[in-house]
Amino acid sequence: MSLIKTEKLSHIYSIGTPFERVAVNNIDFEINKGEFLGIIGATGSGKSTFIQHLNGLLKPTEGSVFYDGTDIHSTKQYTRDIRFKVGLVFQYPEYQLFESTVFDDIAFGPKNMKLSEPDVRERVYEAAGFAGLDESLLSKSPFGLSGGEKRRAAIAGVIAMRPDVLILDEPTAGLDPGGQAEIIRNIVNYKTSHNATVILVTHNMEEIARNVDRILLINRGSIVMDDTPARVFSESSRLTELGLAAPKAALLAERLRVLGLDAGQGIYTTEQLRKALCEIKGLQGGNAHA
Amino acid sequence: MLKDITLGQFFPGDTVVHRLDPRSKLIVMIMYITGLFMAKGFPAYGFMFAVLVTCLAISKIKPAAVLRGLRPILIIICLTVLLNIFFIRGETVLFQYYSIVITLEGVYTAIFMAMRLIMLIVCTFLLTYTTSPITLTDGLERMLSPLKKIKLPVHEFSMMMSIALRMIPTLIEETDKIMSAQKSRGADFETGGLIKRAKAILPLIIPLFISAFRRADELATAMESRCYHGGDGRTKLNVLRFSGIDFAAFLFGACVIAAVIFLGRFAV
Fold it and tell me: Per-residue pLDDT tens for B58-67?
């Protein structure tokens, strides 16, 4: 059975005013335990609104959301429990930090779960480890940290709840490439060690290409594509139409094909392209300077 | 939610009322309020009400928007009505139960006070619904500019006001965002006693303050890098000028006051 499921989910903002706007339109969606899903879509396509339904923050205007077969909004208590099972990391999460020390800030979620003091402690240290935060930072004020450290502290605050589903809205936006790679590495680590389900919303196609096993493309509040990365990225002209772009490796492979060098179908990461090109040149192991 | 607050929200449009100079709108509004306080008796109040409804109709404001805006002050209106009914002692007693006395005069005063309050608020809606905050502060600055002679920083005040107005929706949005983020971490803003709720506000206030300061800082830098240095020698892109409809509006305002004084003679 699917872990999260939405049925005919629609969300309309400011209903009944001149500013009425349909953000999510009739979405049927399912995700299974352990999946790594990427959500892509142009700015304002309704991605953020959609994911806020998955942990019960927003109430659907129409339709319903199920977690483990039960409607998220069936009882108030269940909605609250879901918040701890489905961890949602917002865009620029560093702006939500408020405690006097990083430790206390990460402990905010576990404390709300009414865990005992030692349990909270254990989770804070574990989450800090997953987020790549040095333990010496825990006693510092979150406002004294660097941008990347703040971001990691905020992500740790969600991981500390040990959610079964981790949803991240552009977790790497505005960070340097090193910081971006590290955050993605940490997310993958958390996923493998907890067999968690991860939903990653991002504009960074390389990031998506390298990690996810399924992509959801949202445009104007509806799902346009729901497929493997290989299939989604093979339709590069369609992606361009929707204000997106395939990963650079996929674009390069396509350009090479046009120029007469066919590296094969379904290439969308740098590693794949490199391997394919090396095979063509008859080299083993891909140790050429491709 | 927070986003649905309409008090002081601008609805863009292209009616006569929208096109009026903000200064004349302000002046006519003050004239109308003066009229409201001079009104005596049902005919005068009825007339003022009719004037207001006509103006609302001309500016194409939806009645629903007006009613929604009135909702927050409903308690104040109810309280005024109750206080007036029970505490004004007139001659014609309608109802008596031990020391609780309701008189005809009390009921009348209650009705008039409620009408006056409602019309007062609605006429300010007429101003804020049809005038963008920027034009409004622009108008205020021009109206108060004689005060520059006595070294009052009029331009600075109006700049502060327009920035404050401009930031209200941004801060509301920000509050909404931070609230959602803390709710995702299990914060509970809805249940519990007063102290528990007050404590729950803390995770909201701190990030909000920090972001407000950050925004202020960024805005100041942005303004300075565009060479903003206060009001001295600064000219406007759109200079406010009175036109025919503005003089018509003044005439209208004067007529309303005259009519109210006249109708006051027919008060019972």
Answer: 998 888 888 8
> Taking CA B56 as the corner, what is the angle to CA B50 and CA B59, rounded to the nearest 5 degrees?
140
By C-alpha distance, which of A285, A271, A236 is closest to A257?
A236
* A264 within a domain of the structure (yes/no): yes
Whether A98 sits inside 8 A of B185 (CB atoms) is no
Stated pTM of the model: 0.76
**Which DSSP letter does residue A244 get?**
-
From residue B226, alpha-carbon distances to A115, A219, B6, B230, B235 in Å are 53, 37, 33, 12, 15
ipTM over 0.90: no
Full domain range(s) for residue A273: 247-290
| Total domain count, chain A | 1
What letter would DSSP give residue A4? E
- pLDDT digit string (tens) for B115-152? 999 999 999 988 888 988 788 888 888 888 888 888 88
Name residues 164-183 of chain B within 8 A of A (Cβ).
Answer: 177-178, 180-183
Rounded mean pLDDT of A250-273?
86
User: Which of chain A's residues have a Cβ under 8 Å away from the Cβ of B177?
Assistant: 90, 95
- In angstroms, how far is CA B164 from the centroid of its own chain? 15
Chain B residues with beta carbon closer than 8 angstroms to that of A18: 11
Contacts for B151 with CB less than 8 Å, ≥ 6 apart? none
B205 → chain A, closest CA residue:
A98
In 3D space, the residue among B105, B123, B128 whose CA is nearest the CA of residue B253 turns out to be B123
Mutation for testing the A interface, residue in B175, B185, B211 having most A CBs under 10 Å: B185
What contacts A17, CB < 8 A, 6 or more positions away?
B4, B65
